[in-house]
Every structure is written in structure tokens, then in C-alpha cells.
Design brief:
single chain, about 450 residues, alpha/beta, 6-stranded mixed β-sheet, binds zinc ion
């Protein structure tokens, strides 16, 4: 039924004519003030099931269309907002309507999650963007002048309130994900709007260069052919570092040990990230790493400095990894459909540690290689949907993962089922409460027994 609704929602196509809006109209709007925003109460929103605060100002604005009917008056638009919220909360299992704001062709701005809550509209970008949707299908027509003016005025107001950086980047949804959103004609239209840029020219956060951490020169190098299809995540299994001096020293130690003890050309990883929130350049994007046999020529290896077998890395370091992957993606060093693996998925190792591995399973791009998602695992993820972990990453992605997992479940292998479930038991020893919600007791006991009997398969 949910699937049917989803399909139907995506089959609504309308077509009329085209308009075009220019810089002039934008300029005219620069003089206006914040638009009146129809509050959640005004459109009779249901309360959100949860929320994650958004760190502002964010660098991106992502524009969407709903791919549903247009609306030209308050009553219809408010009803449409309720319909979208229902679909996102019930159909997709998200906390709330996915967008931060929506705009109708009645020229009104409708509050979705607002400026201060992370949205669910664009994986990899939810934590760094304000998502604005225009209600309607704009594949074969451009939204009317009133609604475009309302978007301009909303963006201007968002800049004034310092919720988005003044040098923000505007993307259409299709620039950051494989989708036709916001529709062909609206997408053509926004390319003339201020701050719209091609994805390739997106910016990267500061990376501590080799010179900055006093790297020794590499003994040799092999050029990496990009874009590569994989990102492989590691931990160093050594000490954590929380400031520049300690992290830079850790980098030098890693390099020494890799060059001298292991006889490699250079530090093995392409990049490392410290809990000081900084990204440290290892071999960089253009040199083959030495971090995961069979995958070095086809991956970017990222290490998180520390041992994450019994604890999670801090938020700063996780968002640094997030921004690094994002930036790697934007620089087209990664294929658009890239896969994120933990080291243990490609070698016989515990790297990147149980906690970090459990965390990264919820990151966009992560897939279970061959190990299909078992029903216990799906239950676990379903429960995780309510947890902090998932909120930090991406509701939309988890839902996608769940759907993917269910679709694949018809042909999973027993070995992998045992692997995933035994992993689940191992990783839940410190968080049994999470597991207990997803599994009945007898099942837990059986899995615990399996977990002690079964060792990780090598891939
Ligand atoms: Zn979209
Ligand atoms: Zn590793």
C-alpha cells in the first residue's frame, strides 16, 4: 500500500507553459523584508516525532519540487502541506515533513522543519543545508512568479537571519542525488538564479596539508585513477588526539611506522581525521594508498585516529569525515554511486572498530557487501531510526536502507545472516536495550550463542 502510494505520487505529471525570471526580479526582491511565513500551527501540522538541531549558518540551499499537485490558494496549499507531512511521517517513517520550508503558488511560504531543525530531503546535505520545496511538478513548466518571488524573499531572509552563509551555494536536488527533482524546467530556471553553481565547483573544507604536519616526502607514488567506486573507513587502533599538535604528531608516527616498519612508500591512508575535527592529508586524492589490499587502486582510504572498538568517535571528527567524503564526491574523485565500506568488510580485521562500524552502517553510501540484511538487523535499524545515531546521519537514507534490505531479503545467504546477526549481538553488548526492543528474548539467546560460535568471514 505504501509502495503503491509512493508510485502514484511519482506518476503525477502536468505540463503547461514556461516563464523566466531574471536577476532583475531578484534585485527587486533584495529590497523586500522577510516574507510572512505560514506557521505549522496555521497549516495544522502534526507535532514532529523527534528533531535534531541544525548547526547554522549552513553553506547550502537545496531546491526541490514535490512532484505532486500545484496549489494556488491557502486552503489547498495548507492541505498539501498536511498531505506531504502524512506521507513523510507515515509512508516514509520520518520524524516530520522532510523540507525546511515549502512554497506554494499562492505566493506563501509554509514552515516545514524551519531554520533550526535538520531536514530529510537530500542525503549528505541535510546537515549542511536548508531544503526548500516548491509545491507542484515543474518538469514541464516553471512555477508562477508569485511563488518564485516567495522563494527569493525566503532565501534573502534566511541570509539576513544568518541561517545560511551569505556566500551560500544553491543546488537543485538532482545535483546532489540521482533524481529528476526539482523537475527539468525548474532546474533550467534556477541556473540563472544568484548563487547557483555547477556541482563540480563546490568547495571543500580546510585540509591540513602534508607540509603543515611536517610529513616526510613519499619514497614513491602511483597515481590513482579517479573517480573511484569505494571509500574505505579505518581507525588507527591507537591513541586518540584532540588538538592539532597531538594529531600532527600522530600523523608523523603513522608515517614513520608505515615507511620504516612496513616498508611502504608513505603513510598508508589517503586522509586521516582527528577528534580535533581536522582533516589531515595522507596520500591525498591522486595517489594510490596502502590500506586495504585489492581495494587500494579503487578506493579512497580514510582513517579516524583512535581506537573505536568500545566507543564512538566524537561529533567533530564524524562531521569532518562527512565533509571530507562530501568534498571528495564534489571534486568528482568518487563515482556518483560510490560505496562506503568499513575495512572489516574487505579484509580479515576488526577495523574500524565495532562502535565506529555500527555507526557507519547508517551513513549514506554504506552497503552490506553480500551480507543481506536479516530481519533482526532490520529491526535493529528500525529502532535506530529513533536514536541519536540515525538522526545525526540521515532518516531518509536509513529508510532507503530498510527498503533495500527488505527487497533483498528474499535471497540472502545463511552465512551472511549469521554474520550480521552475530555482529549485531557483539555490537549490542553495551547497548542491549537497543537490541531488546528489536528482538524477542529467545531469539536473543540463540543469536548470542551463534555470536560466540561464529567468527567473521573474510571477504
Ligand atoms: Zn527533491
Ligand atoms: Zn583499517
Amino acid at each position: 500500500m505504501k509502495l503503491l502510494r509512493f508510485v502514484l505520487a511519482n506518476l503525477l505529471f502536468l505540463s503547461v507553459n514556461c516563464l523566466s525570471f531574471t536577476q532583475q526580479e531578484w534585485m527587486a526582491n533584495e529590497l523586500g523584508s522577510c516574507p510572512t511565513i505560514v506557521s505549522r500551527a496555521d497549516w495544522h501540522a502534526k507535532p514532529p516525532k523527534g528533531r535534531t538541531p541544525l548547526n547554522t549558518p549552513v553553506p547550502y540551499i537545496i531546491l526541490h519540487h514535490t512532484d505532486w499537485d500545484e496549489c494556488f490558494d491557502f486552503d489547498t496549499c495548507a492541505a498539501m502541506m498536511r498531505k506531504i507531512q502524512d506521507f513523510h511521517q507515515q509512508g516514509r517513517g520520518w520524524d516530520d515533513i522532510g523540507y525546511n520550508f515549502c512554497v506554494g503558488e499562492d505566493g506563501r511560504v509554509y514552515e516545514g522543519r524551519g531554520w533550526d531543525t535538520v531536514g530529510a530531503h537530500a542525503p549528505w546535505y541535510n546537515f549542511h543545508s536548508i531544503g526548500i520545496c516548491m509545491m507542484g511538478n515543474f518538469d514541464k513548466k516553471v512555477p508562477n512568479r508569485e511563488s518564485i518571488n516567495a522563494v527569493f524573499s525566503l532565501i534573502k531572509c534566511t541570509v539576513e537571519k544568518a541561517k545560511v552563509m551569505s556566500n551560500y551555494t544553491l543546488y537543485g536536488h538532482r545535483q546532489v542525488r540521482d533524481t529528476t527533482c526539482p523537475g527539468d524546467d525548474l532546474f533550467a530556471e534556477i541556473q540563472s538564479w544568484p548563487h547557483w553553481i555547477k556541482r563540480e565547483s563546490g568547495s571543500c573544507s580546510t585540509i591540513v596539508s602534508r607540509a603543515d604536519w611536517h610529513a616526510k616526502p613519499p619514497k614513491g607514488r602511483t597515481p590513482l585513477k579517479t573517480p573511484v567506486p569505494y571509500v574505505i573507513l579505518h581507525h588507527t587502533e591507537g591513541n586518540e588526539c584532540f588538538d592539532f599538535d597531538t594529531c600532527a604528531a600522530t600523523m608523523r608516527n603513522l608515517q614513520n611506522s608505515h615507511q620504516q616498519e612496513r616498508g611502504w612508500d608513505d603513510i598508508g591512508y589517503n586522509f586521516c581525521v582527528g577528534e580535533d575535527g581536522r582533516i589531515y592529508e595522507g596520500r591525498g586524492w591522486d595517489t594510490v594508498g596502502a590500506h586495504a589490499p585489492w581495494y587500494n587502486l579503487r578506493s579512497i582510504g580514510i582513517c579516524m585516529m583512535g581506537n573505536f572498538s568500545k566507543k564512538y568517535p566524537n561529533e567533530e571528527s564524524i562531521s569532518a569525515v562527512y565533509s571530507l567524503i562530501n568534498c571528495t564526491f564534489q571534486r568528482t574523485k568518487l563515482m556518483t554511486n560510490f560505496t562506503l565500506y568499513g575495512h572489516q568488510q574487505v579484509s580479515d580485521t576488526n577495523c574500524p572498530g565495532d562502535y565506529l562500524f555500527a555507526d557507519m552502517m547508517l551513513w549514506p553510501g554504506w552497503v552490506s557487501n553480500g551480507c543481506m540484511l536479516s530481519s533482526a538487523w532490520l529491526n535493529f535499524l528500525t529502532h535506530q531510526k529513533r536514536s541519536k545515531l540515525n538522526n545525526r546521519w540521515d532518516q531518509e537514507h536509513t529508510t532507503h536502507l530498510l527498503r533495500k534490505g527488505r527487497a533483498r531479503n528474499s535471497h540472502f545467504s545463511l552465512q551472511n545472516k549469521v554474520y550480521v546477526e552475530s555482529y549485531l549481538v557483539r555490537s549490542s553488548t553495551s547497548s542491549g536495550h537497543r537490541l531488546s526492543q528489536g528482538l524477542s528474548l529467545w531469539r536473543y539467546a540463540v543469536l548470542a550463542w551463534l555470536g560466540t560460535r561464529y567468527t567473521l568471514p573474510t571477504y
